[in-house]
Specification:
It contains 9 helices and 21 strands. The protein is of the alpha+beta class. It is globular.
């Protein structure tokens, strides 16, 4: 290479005459600019580095001989610190992208993932629907204060190597383990020591408890009776025969020996909401109308869901929210169908509160023997319930996952 004829002073003067290339942005501005481009999945546009590269190449061809001879240069374009901050921020951004890639989530999907995480506590349904190749096992269990019974449903695959009552007994042990392992607001099933078998009549269940089984208080006795009724009524049992170690009757603290309990599949009840602080799961609870001696109508039960119901330790909340009014209720007993017509100014939205409402209405309709319900209002669908068409009532309330 030919030796350069430029001396050091001439080179210094030349540098002073060249335009200054300096990135005036702060490292934070640079990081924000790059982060936005990363999220949009666009390729980086290297504006300032490209200019710097072009200038550096131009200068290199001028001063290369001096650099090779002296091995030192005081060259400074006034952008070292800015480029250093830019490079560090780029490394941080690339590290974040690598972490996202390892998790299998595209950068543009992170906000959606966070949104899903925020909505984990929102329930999209409070009922179990009957479907082919599955069984729904519904158990009546007390709340944690033993004031009322809550039906909970477990959906399992259908099996042909075991009969229904054996499956009920087998799964009951798993249910009690779930109640023990998680904060659910529920108590153990009072039937956990019992065995179930089919009676001589198809609508009769036989319940046998061990010799040491004993109900010491009126509360335990009442929860035991209600649990039997709530556990077996969903599968249309109408009678429970009670045995202790194979002998007829179960000794109960206040009543004495009880040999039989009548089960009513449809109890003409309405549904309210049970929630517990610190528990995500919400439960629909069937309530009997207190102090009613004559036959209760569906309309009576329906309008009862506009009010709260107080127990000593907890208040069950209304399931028909404020802002919702009814224009008409059309009952077709012959067709086992009911139509609910909301007023046009009713506040109907596809959210958890309204899902609770329509599903509790459908469960209440089932309690009165209706097979289908039609909702008419200023919305097309709430949850899984379509409006303006007959919808089959759910099988039972409160599906839960075994742990």
């Amino acid at each position: 290479m030919k030796k350069s004829e430029w001396n050091d002073e001439q080179l210094e003067q030349l540098f002073k005459q060249m335009p200054s290339i300096k990135d005036q942005r702060s490292p934070q501005d640079i990081y924000q600019n790059i982060s936005s481009k990363v999220k949009k999945k666009k390729k980086y546009t290297w504006v300032f580095p490209s200019l710097a590269t072009a200038a550096a190449l131009f200068i290199f061809f001028i001063i290369a001989p001096s650099i090779l001879n002296n091995q030192e240069s005081n060259l400074s374009l006034g952008q070292d610190s800015s480029e250093e901050g830019f490079t560090q921020d780029m490394k941080k951004s690339e590290m974040k992208d690598e972490e996202v890639a390892e998790k299998g989530i595209a950068p543009a999907d992170q906000a959606q993932e966070n949104s899903f995480a925020m909505n984990e506590e929102i329930q999209t349904s409070f009922v179990a629907w009957d479907a082919p190749n599955q069984q729904i096992l519904t158990y009546g269990v007390p709340d944690e204060n033993a004031e009322f019974i809550i039906p909970v449903s477990i959906i399992v695959e259908e099996r042909h190597d075991i009969n229904f009552l054996e499956r009920m007994q087998e799964t009951l042990a798993d249910l009690n383990k779930t109640i023990d392992r998680t904060v659910t607001g529920l108590s153990y099933s009072p039937l956990w020591k019992a065995t179930f078998s089919q009676g001589d009549i198809s609508d009769t269940v036989t319940i046998n408890v061990p010799r040491d089984f004993y109900l010491s208080s009126s509360t335990e006795e009442e929860m035991f009776k209600q649990s039997i009724e709530e556990t077996f009524r969903w599968n249309l049992f109408e009678n429970a025969l009670l045995y202790t170690d194979g002998q007829s009757g179960i000794e109960m603290g206040n009543t004495g020996k009880v040999k039989e309990i009548a089960i009513t599949p449809q109890n003409k009840r309405f549904y309210l909401l049970y929630t517990k602080e610190g528990v995500n799961q919400k439960y629909l609870v069937p309530i009997k109308m207190a102090g009613v001696k004559t036959a209760v109508t569906f309309e009576d039960a329906f309008f009862s869901m506009y009010n709260d119901f107080e127990y000593p330790s907890v208040t069950l909340k209304r399931t028909i929210p404020k802002g919702v009014t009814i224009e008409n209720i059309v009952v077709e007993n012959k067709n086992r169908h009911v139509t609910i017509v909301f007023t046009q100014d009713s506040v109907l939205e596809n959210d958890e509160q309204n899902i609770l409402m329509v599903e509790s209405i459908m469960l209440t309709a089932k309690e009165f023997g209706f097979d289908t319900v039609t909702f008419i209002g200023n919305i097309n669908q709430i949850g899984e319930i379509q409006f303006n068409v007959p919808m089959i009532v759910p099988f039972s309330p409160n599906p839960i996952q075994l742990q």
